[in-house]
Design brief:
The structure is a single chain. The chain is mostly helical. 80% of the residues lie in helices and 0% in strands. It contains 2 helices and no strands. Helix 1 runs antiparallel to helix 2. The protein starts with a helix and ends with a helix. The mean pLDDT is 93.
Length: 51
Amino acid sequence: MADLYLKNLESERKALWATCRLKGLAKHTPERQRIAALDTAIAAHKAKQKG
């Protein structure tokens, strides 16, 4: 079964990253901070899946 939560997190991260690259946003912007938060959420979810 597909992990929709993980797909949603990764999709949001990809969209934010594309926006940041297009606009050339710096690291301290809210969008880049959200990407960092998504990275930690994705890593935690994958670790939880492994057991």
